[in-house]
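Weekly structure sync, notes
Attendees: PL (lead), two postdocs, one rotation student
Agenda item 3: pending single-chain targets
PL asked that the sequence for the first pending target be pasted directly into the notes so everyone works from the same version. It is reproduced below exactly as submitted, 193 residues in total.
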Amino acid sequence: VYGGSYDTNIDASPTITVNATGAGAAYYFYGGNSNGGTLTGSPTIVINQTYAGVDTVAGGANTGDIVGNPSVIVNGTSGTTQAGGFIRANTISNLYGGSNAGNVTGNTSVIVNNAHGIITSLVGGSYSGSVTGSATNTVNALENGITNFIGARRTGNAGGDAKNTLTNIDTNTTAVSSTYHRVCHQGAADGPV
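Predicted structure, written out during the meeting:
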């Protein structure tokens, strides 16, 4: 699901609201474009409940640039439950405040509230690309942690430090950075703390 176009320039501030997903499918949600071009505006993705099988949620584009302030809000996730209790499921594999591959001229924002299961990778900015502003990440009550947390960007430049507020996070979270540098990927630092 894309809030923007396939590959043309567009002026818009789309909002994608997901009230529920099922299990067994790989879901992808992007606030911006699919395959290039520039979205000028501030896309927002709101996930109110997801069961499992969400591969990627990105406030920005899959491929393409954003001139604006993309944001992602996750209000609830559920893991997989079987007889005998809770199974730790990768509820969201990849969560990016910015784009998968592209630049953001602006700030990014990620808010996660009351989530169960595991977020495998949370990048406050773009996975691959630059963010000119800051990345604000607010994560509260994530029961089974984040496998890899990167405050502002994985590759590319960041104009400002990440602003992280992490509360009630399970100890499974293995990588937390207070700067825009990537640190502690699976316990091994590859950038300054």
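Discussion points:
- The first strand starts at residue 10 and ends at 11.
- Confidence is low (pLDDT under 50) at residues 171-193.
Action: rotation student to compare against the earlier draft before next sync.
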